[in-house]
Design a protein that fits this description.
Layout: H1 8-17, E1 19-22, H2 28-43, E2 50-51, E3 59-63, H3 71-77, H4 81-89, E4 93-104, E5 112-115, E6 123-124, E7 128-134, E8 145-147, E9 188-190, E10 198-201, E11 207-209, E12 218-226, E13 231-232, H5 243-246, E14 263-266
Antiparallel strand pairs: 1-10, 2-3, 3-4, 4-12, 4-14, 5-11, 6-13, 7-10, 7-12, 8-9, 8-11
């Protein structure tokens, strides 16, 4: 791993704000391997890979393909990402929940609305992090937006459909009503990023993602990690990724099996 250690200031910023940008995490060699894995994934999508755009430029998304394309796991385990995730979470281990390929082609008009990831997942854990890894330069205007501090009390908000903003079908009374977000709030932050940089955010951090009106592709992979203390949650609605449909058979509060969610880093201190 060529990347230097996560600094105390970076770890503190992540824990305080629920988001931090890390510069020059990935070397050119890892970026090239990741780019090849993305192209291979797009050429051979998994059962849930598809174009999410209804108009304008395409928006390809797919996930849970690390067993078919080992570079996704290698970059987390042998590359720097697992180590970075573990340092930010401050846990004893970092385990890969899944990878998520996101490619917005030039002229794409599909914006992703404000949401938090945790209520869409079939797990709960006190220590989590997503590492959003861009393969192309992304300006601040086209980058993800985050609401600082929205992760702190671990409130889980109503999961909604991205296109209609309607609640997911099922009993959603356990969730808090989705908050109104002031688009001009000083607590909203975004970051211009270059290939090699990483945006790190907690599963509870509220965020959105704009369309891609530029004339270049916006390739990215989100690597999702969790630490110790994770448990399986049987949500009363569909989950993403749909691990139960993929064959994962667990009961409420069961620990998560290693063969589905491999350990990629352990704290040796």
């Amino acid at each position: 791993m060529n990347y230097s250690e996560v600094s105390a200031a970076e770890a503190n910023e992540f824990r305080k704000n629920g988001v931090v940008v890390l510069r020059d995490v990935l070397s050119q060699g890892w970026l090239e391997r990741l780019a090849k894995a993305i192209e291979a994934n797009m050429a051979s999508p998994g059962p849930y890979g598809k174009n999410h755009a209804e108009e304008g430029g395409a928006y390809f998304g797919d996930y849970v393909n690390w067993q078919r394309f080992p570079d996704f796991l290698d970059i987390a385990k042998d590359g720097p990402l697992g180590h970075v995730a573990g340092e930010l979470m401050g846990g004893a281990v970092a385990r890969l929940f899944h990878e998520h390929v996101l490619v917005k082609e030039p002229g794409n008009v599909s914006a992703t609305p404000w949401h938090q990831d945790m209520p869409y997942y079939c797990i709960d854990c006190p220590k989590t992090v997503s590492l959003w890894v861009p393969l192309d330069p992304v300006s601040r205007q086209e980058s993800l937006n985050f609401l600082k501090g929205s992760h702190k009390d671990k409130t889980t908000y109503m999961p909604r459909r991205f296109k209609t903003l309607e609640p997911l079908e099922g009993d959603t009374t356990e969730y808090e009503a989705f908050p109104a977000i002031d688009e001009h709030s000083d607590d909203i932050v975004s970051y211009a990023v270059e290939p090699g940089d990483v945006l790190a955010f907690d599963f509870h951090t509220l965020h959105d993602a704009p369309a891609n009106p530029t004339n270049t592709r916006r390739r990215a992979v989100s690597f999702r990690f969790f630490a110790e203390g994770a448990r399986y949650v049987a949500r009363p609605h569909e989950v993403s990724p749909p691990f139960p449909d993929l064959g994962l058979e667990l009961n409420m509060n069961d620990p998560l099996p290693e063969d589905w969610f491999p350990t990629v880093w352990m704290n040796q201190a």
